[in-house]
Design goal:
The structure is a homotetramer of 199-residue chains. Chain A is mainly alpha-helical and 199 residues long. Chain A is built from nine helices and no strands. Chain A is 69% helix and 0% strand. The longest helix of chain A has 27 residues. The structure holds a DNA duplex (21 and 21 nucleotides).
Chain lengths: 199, 199, 199, 199
DNA sequence: GATGAATGAGCATTCATTCAT
DNA sequence: GATGAATGAATGCTCATTCAT
């Protein structure tokens, strides 16, 4: 057992929570320190700088999302529509916990940071991983003749993801209007219909 | 004529350019002052605070987008598909100039700002205006029987906008893959197909 | 009349006083700020960094020393011995006010500072100016045949300055032993004797 | 034999090397620890604080200098001029290895340190030891009638030491101009001449 | 009205020192 | 005894904001 049970993971999580609820420049290292319950020096033993911490928080969240999406499908599932429904549910479930992940994901706070090229590269990889999971299912559907090849599968994946995100975002805002499940079903509807092979 | 021909509009534009290219916390009032070519005091005669300036920059950009979208259609146009194509082109044209508007739009920089409720409210109004323009065309299509009523028109508008945005974003990144026009046409394809009234 | 009557000169003087009485790392910018009676930002409007301030303090003191040494001799003076006595008195008078200037001069605090090459160059120039004043008088003496050419005049100047400094330093420490005037006279004695042309 | 063969002496030496090449505030305990190859705790078992370490490093260097100076003269030597030459060579030899010892010696870094009075006292003692070695030879010379009693032997010792130091310093800087041996010989020349008993 | 020098609260970061293992 | 992770006070520096001119 280590002297302290504060792990790097704990810090990432705590910092993540703060960063999802306030803009970068309002999340001070002192607030992080306090939330995590460690000294300032400890923070800097794990992360080179605030920027480094920030980038790694994002990467951590993305890793979890990718992990969750890449979990195997239940064994009896094999039509693309059902697979997409499952992936959508995982995705939306994730958003519901991490409402602001996208703000982070796309945050331009870090633009131009010299030393962070490598981390930024990893962000892109993870984003691609997310897209790829959807893209693969879609390509399968095209190959099976279930979907039209009219829209390239990578673009189709982007479109579908965009609908899901936009939906969960507006669901987050106007709870009255549409709930998550409703949105998923409508996005699936538009997608399935939109990709339908013309007879 | 005033001693200086620097208008509020000039400031909003200059600040907008800076804010689209660097994160909020790296855009100092001094840089804005310098770019606009006025004294610091003058900035503060026009805007209560940096946050106020920021919010008004965003609002200004949104106003222009809304204006552009609300321009009348050419007189001979009346089918929803063509209207959507025209709106899409306006939207994408706008994005191509103001690549980073979305970063601003959705920026969480300002979250929780006490005094800015009113401005934030206006943001929402403008965003709604954007959605409404699309929603109205879609509702028309449903009323005419061109589109299925399966998806509520506001949600359908969100979906369509999301596809456009996601498309232009990825177009910005991987120029090789898909250009703007291609993406618009594919988004329209998915939408038209997806909303098609089942026979 | 300016809004504040705090000038760059005032800052240099105040900072100089602090730096002569405490080591660099114990002189905080806050202490300087407090002593000068300005805000921290004002300090940084005048100096790029603490290091910059430090270098300019030293340069300022050196400038005054050089000025003082370069003042004309009284018109009726023309033998080198008397000139050296006058210079010695100016030098020792300076040290008595600025006891710790040498600590600053030779301080290794700054070694290796990247951006300060230019200032460091100026330090060397001023030091050379000091040596040159003595060297010129000595060379004159050699030319007139009053001094032996055995020791090159630049080295002789270094030797003489070293005696003066070492003397004033020890005078500063053991006041009981030898006072400034006594030391000057003895240093002059050794120099005059040591440089005497053998008959 | 202890588990580690790192002795106090090793630490003093390693720290000395660092302190001669960077200013006090840039030599961190971590760098010392790393260079010595021990844990931080071990450093603090040997030294109360960084200041304590620093003081003891200086003292250690001074001890070696004093040792070196106090070594007996070769048996057949007995005129003061030759003795001074030998001492000068030892001194200059020392400087050539420990170029920056003087920076340390005279460093004002520590001024005012409360707890270090005792160590500071020891510094003074060592410095006096250095002076005394020269002073004794000079006094001998005066007693023998070789040197004039005009300049008190302690002051004469200070003067001579100052010339040596100043010379080695400038030798260090302008290698082209004068080398160590040349300077020693000229300093000796000035001293011998300057102290010569008038006939 | 316009200006920009002055302000000082606020922040990221460092590093001497401690102490549980 | 030795270690080095953890600590947090201390410090250099920034930048939004004010206000005398």
């Amino acid at each position: 057992m280590s002297k302290s049970n504060v792990t790097l993971e704990n810090i990432l999580e705590a910092a993540g929570e703060l960063l999802m609820n306030s803009p970068y420049h309002k999340v001070t290292m002192d607030k992080v320190r306090e939330k995590v319950g460690v000294g300032k020096g400890t923070l800097y033993r794990h992360f080179d700088s605030k920027e480094d911490l920030y980038c790694k928080v994002v990467l951590n969240e993305l890793d979890r999302l990718v992990e969750s999406l890449q979990e195997n499908f239940p064994p009896d599932i094999d039509d693309p529509a059902t697979k997409l429904r499952i992936l959508s549910e995982r995705m939306v479930g994730f958003f519901e916990q991490k409402r602001s992940l996208f703000a982070l994901l796309r945050s331009e706070e870090i633009r131009g940071s010299q030393a962070k090229k490598r981390l930024f590269q990893k962000w892109k990889e993870r984003r691609n991983d997310v897209v790829k999971v959807f893209e693969n299912v879609i390509r399968e559907g095209i190959d099976e003749g279930a979907y039209s090849p009219e829209i390239p599968p990578d673009l189709a994946a982007h479109f579908f993801l965009a609908m899901l995100k936009s939906g969960s975002r507006s669901a987050g805002r106007n709870k009255a209007d549409h709930n998550g499940a409703f949105i998923v079903s409508k996005a699936l509807f538009m997608f399935e219909n939109g990709m339908k092979q013309d007879d």
